[in-house]
Amino acid sequence: MFASRTNWKLEQNRFTQALEAHRRSGKVLLDLTASNPTDCDFEYPKGEILSSFADPRALQYTPESKGMHSAREAVASYYAGRPGFGVCSGSVDPERIILTAGTSEAYSYIFRLLCEPGEEVLFPAPSYPLLEYVAGLNDVRLVPYPLQYDHGWQMDIAALRAAVTTRTRAVLVVHPNNPTGSFVSPAEAAALREVCEARGMAIVADEVFLDYAEDSKPHASFAFDTSVTSGTSPLTFTLSGLSKISALPQMKLAWLVTSGSEPLVRAALERLEIVADTYLSPGTPVQLAAPKLLGLRDRMQSQLQSRIAANLAHLDSALTGQKLLTRLERQGGWYAVLRGPATGPDEELAIRLLQEQSVLVHPGRFFDFPQDGFLVLSLITPESTFREGVRRMLAFFAATNG
């Protein structure tokens, strides 16, 4: 009765079972995986957010396939003056923007546009596991290319080239990556453009964490055309949304920006507009509110950046003087990756930490780390929870390896 694309393993894994058992026990959980900003004790300007939805135009349904022009103009303003790869100060035409209800939906539009069933998209490993589900639902096969760690994360361009086949339609980058926090460097972006231009492949750039750079400086976006400066301009789709930019995941408004050589952009947008017109996903109220909600981003981001910096400073201080855990270098995002003794599966390690210390962390295997010994922590966790969780985690490792 059911399609093979939904033939997932629905049984809970041991990690999920352990978490459910802990919750039933009634014990206080120190959740160091918290990634929903609305649950992390940030101060939202409630009055301004709620008033942005009091527009009487929300009572009128006037659908636009790409999304309301006022909302797309607000998104274009977000990119105005930002740097690109080889572009000092970029701009985006609102006509090249298509609004969606989330980046997952934007991925679906792009996969449907580019891929026949069974064709391939290259994606980075480690990365966020949701990508596999989105690809599977669109009958696309994801093929990993590795990110390597050596005093920082780098794309393995040679491995990426070797992974390309006649069925490869696009290369996906997460910029900065989740969870490694690594940005695509200018040299990597140039190599990526060269590979995709030569093979007629597209670039799909997920930039939801772009504003959360550790150095607090604007990093280059893939949203701008590069043909003038680099001579190569493959078809490129850049994704982002309110979820991370304004810390408003519940508003369900995201977008994709199309760039590249003009003939390819024109052809892609003609098709994407029909796809978008078929779904008409974003609601009118949130589109009307988009200029205001995007305008709140600086206030929200400053809170998140302060939390990230405080938790990171505490983590580094706590790690000083011990040799069991090392924090890997990061450039942005809101996660930290720890490397410890690979004495067994990191899922088992995370389960023991949960059961013995009531501390919840993500095992690295959930993000396709190539080997055991990695744990992932969220840096937007409320500070008191984060500090106590780190204390217990270090005590656990000291006792386990003492």
Description:
The protein is of the alpha/beta class and 402 residues long. It contains 14 helices and 14 strands. The strands form three sheets. An eight-stranded mixed sheet has the order 2-9-8-7-6-3-4-5, with helices on both faces. A four-stranded antiparallel sheet has the order 10-11-14-13. A hairpin with a 3-residue loop joins strand 4 and strand 5. The chain starts with 13 loop residues before the first helix and ends with a helix. The model has no long low-confidence stretch (mean pLDDT 95).
Could you give the topology of this structure?
Blueprint: H1 14-25, E1 30-31, H2 46-51, H3 69-79, E2 97-100, H4 103-114, E3 120-125, H5 130-137, E4 141-149, E5 153-155, H6 157-163, E6 168-174, H7 186-199, E7 202-206, H8 227-230, E8 236-241, H9 242-245, E9 254-259, H10 262-279, H11 284-295, H12 297-319, E10 326-327, E11 335-339, H13 346-357, E12 359-360, E13 362-363, E14 374-378, H14 383-400
Parallel strand pairs: 1-12, 3-4, 3-6, 6-7, 7-8
Antiparallel strand pairs: 2-9, 4-5, 8-9, 10-11, 11-14, 13-14
